[in-house]
Amino acid sequence: DAKTTQPTSMDCAEGRAANLPCNHSTISGNEYVYWYRQIHSQGPQYIIHGLKNNETNEMASLIITEDRKSSTLILPHATLRDTAVYYCIVRFLQTGANNLFFGTGTRLTVIP
Amino acid sequence: GAVVSQHPSRVICKSGTSVKIECRSLDFQATTMFWYRQFPKKSLMLMATSNEGSKATYEQGVEKDKFLINHASLTLSTLTVTSAHPEDSSFYICSARDPGTIYEQYFGPGTRLTVT
């Protein structure tokens, strides 16, 4: 699976949009971009994923550049409960053993 | 999304004893489950892949005789930490793969193990 690079930490004011970048310059054509987050002392929570097109769900939006070498997770209106470590992962979807390799992620702190 | 549970949520045991952690997929059948461990302020590290009805596949550096994994049914995998020592204290997290949703993985809430 391709490696990703994320900033170590970010702050965001409550109510503002949080934009979390991720670089994955070695991504291959059939690897997906996944985002998970982990709130302190909890298991990771799936947020969103995409292949080429931008995606939006009730939690967030995912913007993938045209060359697919980077992406941005957008939390449109950050709340204090969004404080967590956010992991950007690129992975194949395949029927064999399919696990997620977690990097160091970005520690997002939402400030009141 | 699908629900994965873990039991217990936290456990304290004495050095030398064994501890069993259960991981259950509550609303889907998981042919494959994964066990991770996480040290404070560190990322998740995959320990092993648990396949229903067959032996688990362990990552390099993980002792299979110390971390016993059993996946006896499509909804339950167990991780037993044998002869636990203080250095085994960690946050253990399981995930289960749902073949009905393009092989998505859903994570349990984690188990905090403290060995005294």
Model description:
The complex is a heterodimer of chains A (about 110) and B (about 120). Chain A has about 110 residues and is an all-beta fold. Chain A has strands at about 10-15, 20-25, 30-40, 45-50, 55, 60-65, 70-75, 85-90, 105-110. In chain A, the strands form two sheets. Chain A has a five-stranded mixed sheet with strand order 1-9-8-3-4, with no helix packed on it. Chain A has a four-stranded antiparallel sheet with strand order 2-7-6-5, with no helix packed on it. The mean pLDDT of chain A is about 90. Helices cover about 0% and strands about 55% of the residues of chain B. In chain B, the strands form two sheets. In chain B, strands 2, 4, 5, 6, 9, 10 and 11 form a seven-stranded mixed sheet that branches. In chain B, strands 1-3-8-7 form a four-stranded antiparallel sheet, with no helix packed on it. Chain B is globular, with a radius of gyration of 13 Å. The mean pLDDT of chain B is about 90. Chain B is mainly beta and about 120 residues long. The interface between A and B is medium-sized, with 21 and 26 residues.
In short:
The complex is a heterodimer of chains A (112) and B (116). Chain A is mainly beta.
Write the layout of secondary structure elements.
The complex is a heterodimer of chains A (112) and B (116).
Chain A: E1 9-13, E2 18-23, E3 31-38, E4 45-50, E5 55-56, E6 61-64, E7 70-75, E8 84-92, E9 106-111
Chain B: E1 4-7, E2 10-13, E3 19-25, E4 32-38, E5 45-51, E6 57-58, E7 67-73, E8 76-81, E9 90-98, E10 104-107, E11 111-115
Parallel strand pairs in B: 2-11
Antiparallel strand pairs in B: 1-3, 3-8, 4-5, 4-9, 5-6, 7-8, 9-10, 9-11
